[in-house]
Amino acid sequence: MSSAKGKAIHVDERYLHVELKDGRVISTPMSWYPELQNATLAQLADYRFICRGTGIEWPALDYHLSIEAMLVENRLLKAA
């Protein structure tokens, strides 16, 4: 799973979408990330990929998100 490296993100009112370098797109509910859900559009637009593309950082929010964790959390919620 460590090969999941981010290329770009897009946020809408319901989902955080992460485009991966291999062409896949991961979409997870914004409700999973209260810090992001409560952020301004300017804060959300100010992101960068970290850890060789496997994580995302929003410096103004001091918030970090692992792309792999998005996939794992998604599977765990579906199993519940």
Walkthrough of the structure:
The chain has 80 residues and is α+β, with helices and mostly antiparallel strands. It has a single domain (6-79), classed as NE0471 N-terminal domain-like (2-Layer Sandwich), CATH 3.30.2020.40. Helices cover 28% and strands 35% of the residues. It has three helices and six strands, in the order βββααβββα. The strands form two sheets. A three-stranded antiparallel beta sheet has the order 1-2-3, covered by helices on one side. It has a three-stranded antiparallel beta sheet with strand order 4-5-6. Strand 4 (48-50) and strand 5 form a beta hairpin.
CATH superfamily: Uncharacterised protein PF10387, DUF2442
Mean pLDDT: 89
Rg to the nearest angstrom? Answer: 12 Å
- Fraction of helical residues: 25-40%
Sequence of strands across the biggest β-sheet:
1-2-3
Topology overview:
Blueprint: E1 6-11, E2 15-20, E3 25-29, H1 34-37, H2 41-45, E4 48-50, E5 55-58, E6 63-66, H3 67-79
Protein traits:
single chain, NE0471 N-terminal domain-like, three-stranded antiparallel sheet, 6 strands
Brief rundown of the structure:
This protein is of the alpha+beta class. It has helices spanning 34-37, 41-45, 67-79, and strands spanning 6-11, 15-20, 25-29, 48-50, 55-58, 63-66.
